């Protein structure tokens, strides 16, 4: 009977080791995925709140506040939705930023939701004639601009996408030359192999947000992603931007 008894013990020990190994492996995979994706812990999301700023006939504005490190003296504003057709990259930032852990600075995301005359790609309207774009720009100037000016922000980033109108797919730039925002945008490029600095001659939204912010003490630059990039690429580029911004020397 002894050999049979010993064999049962050995089998039980092997099964126990398999269970322990499986638990460790699953835990490691889960932990690694959380680190890679930046899944928030309770301390990171407890202070986050969403505040409605405006509701009008053309759309609404809200802000997700206190993302990242709410105790940081440095505050950065992201703005999405100024141009409604570029919503995929806007949704990407809103999806990813609140779930990134270990951030140094505190972030607010201003979300513009245009509901009137949103339009569609290929409708034949120029950037200057699109009522949806203009509605978003008006909402930005009326509601987001004063909040950022009066909100003690150190930086603002206006998130957009394009359909191939620029010679580069993923880029940053400031509409105001020889400004601190140009320095910050160039520092982003130095730390992001997939992002370049390229400034077009004109922007339709500049006068409604980034230009007056720069002229009134808040550095502001654009982030532009290619509209037709795959979602995986958008995710990677936005995450790259987030980490580079968080390592700026403000």
Give a quick summary of the entry:
The protein is of the alpha/beta class and 250 residues long. The chain contains 7 helices and 8 strands, in the order ααβββαβαββαβαβα.
Question: How would the global form be characterised?
Answer: globular
| Succession of helices and strands | HHEEEHEHEEHEHEH
What would CATH call the homologous superfamily of the largest domain? Zn peptidases
CATH class of the largest domain: Alpha Beta
Class based on secondary structure composition and strand pairing: alpha/beta
Counted by DSSP, the helix tally is: 7
Largest sheet: 8 strands, mixed
Distance between the termini: 75 Å
Helix percentage range: 40-55%
Give an overview in words.
The chain folds into 2 domains: 1-37; 42-246, Aminopeptidase (3-Layer(aba) Sandwich), CATH 3.40.630.10. The protein is 41% helix and 21% strand. The chain contains 7 helices and 8 strands, in the order H-H-E-E-E-H-E-H-E-E-H-E-H-E-H. The protein has helices at 2-37, 42-45, 87-96, 131-149, 180-190, 210-215, 231-246, and strands spanning 49-55, 59-68, 75-80, 106-114, 155-162, 171-173, 196-197, 220-226. An 8-stranded mixed beta sheet has the order 1-2-4-3-5-8-6-7. The radius of gyration is 23 Å and the shape is globular.
């Amino acid at each position: 009977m002894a050999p049979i008894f010993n064999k049962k013990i050995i089998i039980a020990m092997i099964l126990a080791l398999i269970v322990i190994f499986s638990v460790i492996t699953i835990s490691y995979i889960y932990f690694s995925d959380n680190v890679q994706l930046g899944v928030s812990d309770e301390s990171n999301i407890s202070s986050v709140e969403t505040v409605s700023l405006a509701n009008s006939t053309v759309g609404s504005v809200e802000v997700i506040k206190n993302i990242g490190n709410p105790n940081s003296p440095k505050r950065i504003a992201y703005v999405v939705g100024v141009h409604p057709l570029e919503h995929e990259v806007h949704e990407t930032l809103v999806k990813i930023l609140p779930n990134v852990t270990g951030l140094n600075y505190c972030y607010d995301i201003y979300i513009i939701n245009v509901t009137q005359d949103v339009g569609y790609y290929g409708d034949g309207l120029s950037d200057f004639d699109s009522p949806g774009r203009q509605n978003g720009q008006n909402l930005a100037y009326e509601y987001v601009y004063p909040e950022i000016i009066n909100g003690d922000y150190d930086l603002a980033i206006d998130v957009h996408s394009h359909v191939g109108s620029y010679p580069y797919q993923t880029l940053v730039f400031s509409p105001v030359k020889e400004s601190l925002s140009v320095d910050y945008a160039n520092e982003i490029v130095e730390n992001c192999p997939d992002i370049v600095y390229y400034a077009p001659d004109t922007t339709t939204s500049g006068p409604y947000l980034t230009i007056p912010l720069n002229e009134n003490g808040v550095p502001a630059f654009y982030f532009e992603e290619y509209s037709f990039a795959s979602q995986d690429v958008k995710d990677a580029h936005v995450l790259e931007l987030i980490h580079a911004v968080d390592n700026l020397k403000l």
